[in-house]
Amino acid sequence: MNITIVCDVLGEPNNGTSVAAYNLINHLKSQGHDVRVVCCDKDKKGERGFCIVPTLNLGPIVNAALARNEVVPAKADPVILEEAIKDADVVHLLMPFPLSWKAVKICEKYGVPMTASFHVQAENFTCHLGMMKSGLATKEVYKYFYKKVYDHCTLTHYPTEFIKEDFESNIKKHVPSRVISNGVSESFFEPAPLEAIIRQKQKNNKKFTIVVVGRYSSEKAQQVLIRAIAKSKYKDRIKLIMAGEGPKGRMYRRLVKRNGVDCEMRFIEHNELKEVLNAADLYVHTAYVELESIACLEAIVTGLVPIICDSKRSAARFFAQDDRCLYRKWDSEDLKNKIEYFMDNPEELDACKEKYRTQANVSRLGECMNKMEEMLQEAAGMREKEA
Questions:
Q1: For the whole model, what pTM was predicted?
Q2: 351 and 203, same structural domain?
Q3: Mean pLDDT of 77-100
């Protein structure tokens, strides 16, 4: 098939949406499809299959806010978009933003069927406007997303049932869709080499090691974990690893220093992250807004017990197998108590690890990408039937 993928934001594969985009692009290419990617990433200029559009200028204030959050949105260039779309069998939209809005109109002009992934919760957008906790803002943003993109698509991809129900309950409409996990990479299902695990444990000074993975951003709320460790009677026995990067990094470093927490903060590449997780003792998932949380699933697959923020806006809370693995949103005292429980009861931690290892229902990346490919083929086939 000739497949065009429209990416309002692509960038580096250092967040869930970008990783999901690259996984889909690479899979489709590996299956022999002709894939064209429309994005504004200047470093992709000249690469086969990439069509580069300008960046979107929203004025100095908004541009600065987006830059702080490491977001570079694309500007719709109708000439480049039309060239990338007109001969496509199907177009897949990654985000419900201006580049995709224009792509919708061009697809309808040429009769090209569209699919779209649901990678953006309303809060991912409203957090830039200081309205993340507004239910009314969430509802209005979702209605706008539906009007501009999802109402025009043959099929919509939801990573979880949670976000499907959340979106459709807000817009009060049913959207033709497929629920397909973004998938955990095959490599996480195999243990890291023993020597690598030993090396990581030595780096951690053989302390009880807690890992949290995610961008340093408002909705990830890693400060709750820092404060929980700072309050703990075991503070001096704990090593915290915050794998990520982002706009809250400076604030978190100040908080760590002020509270004397032994913490390592940096972006960790895929292969090393597997080693870090294999060598850790506990995983904490602090995000209170989350579509799926592949990072949490990766930790579970490696054998770690997760303690997860019990937020109604997060799909990750459904991964917890009992109340010992959930803490109240924003409550660092409750999180501290859950961490200390497992430190005080290592036999319970080991039993929990075995429970997660044998009962976790985790989708493998390859299986998920095959389902995504089937969804695109189904959408393309609908055009042929209509023709």
A1: 0.91
A2: yes
A3: 97
